[in-house]
Amino acid sequence: MLQICSKFRHCLIPHLQKSCLNNLKQIGTASAVANSTNAEPEWQLIAATCISRSPIITAELTPMEKEYKELVEQREFEQSLQSDHELRLIEDKIKIDLMSMQDRDLVEIEEVSSQTGTEFEDASVAELESHQFGSRVTDADKLNDMTSLNRALDRSLYLTISQKLGSQHQWVFPQTKWIPGETLRQSCERIVKDICGSKIKVKILGNSPCGFYKYKYSKEMRKDEGFIGAKVFFFTGHVLAFDTQGKLDINKDIFSDYLWLTQDELSTKLGKSYYQAVSSFIISDQ
Fold it and tell me: What distance in Å separates the CA atoms of residue 68 and residue 103, rounded to the nearest whole number?
């Protein structure tokens, strides 16, 4: 009896093992088919560049700053020692008094005949009055030319373009699709070169993104692109040099228009969610 049970066991175990393996293979195949059927499309990677021009001149002082400046200057004047020019004026006055009292032996004629401190002061004031200071308001400010870099000299300006995304144009920072084989920074350098060319010199800062934003494509765009949406990685770029006006020759097939905007103006041009994403890494100059 024991021998029969032992033989039966040896015959049954391999059969069960084979049956279990077949079931596991069928379950794995069905799971793979289900996963491939229910798998969502991937996200498209986009590299964008926040190109900024730093302020060229200092900002206007606020009323409080002006009041504090006057207070500090008055305090420094009261506690300061006499300058070399003030000491020179005192010495000139002593020499003139000695000359008037006919004590000519105590005064050298060459020193009296040279330029006095008062004459030097008068000449300096005349030179200052003849100097023409540059205006804080440029021609681009007067014409409200937002395509010129020569405007809002006391504010930071950001390059914003009207780029074709799908079937419509949207106001965004310059962006391009990431190409396999290049880094996100290289993608940003490529779009900067395509837009700015040789007229504006831009330096990309860092190798890692400074901001992130994502959005979903429309149904038609999903079919065309094959992606559920875009994940945008922002990099920072600073304008190092530009020509007289900083005008751009953009490709009208891709970009319909461009503007150099302050942070206040960005909030009126960019979409609400897009502006919230970029404002997290834009430093306010107000």
Answer: 49
CA 254 – CA 81 distance, rounded (Å): 65
pLDDT tens per residue, range 254-286: 778 899 999 999 999 998 999 999 999 998 887
What does the DSSP assignment read for 82-108?
PPHHHHHHHHHHHHHHHHHTT-GGGS-
Closest CA relative to residue 152, chosen from 266, 270, 35:
266
C-alpha distances out from residue 63 to 55, 67, 68, 70, Å = 21, 6, 9, 11
**What is the pTM for the complete model shown?**
0.71
Amino acid identity of residue 77, one-letter, is: F
Question: Measured between alpha carbons, how far is 286 from 266 in angstroms, rounded to an integer?
Answer: 14
Structure tokens at 74: 């008055």
CA dihedral 78, 81, 84, 85 (to 10 degrees): 20
CA distances from 55 to 136, 143, 204 (A): 12, 20, 18
- Three-state SS at 75: helix
State mean pLDDT over 170-178. 92
Q: Walk me through the domains of the chain, giving residue ranges and CATH numbers.
A: 43-58+138-278 (3.90.79.10), 63-130 (no CATH)
- CB 235 within 8 Å of CB 184: yes
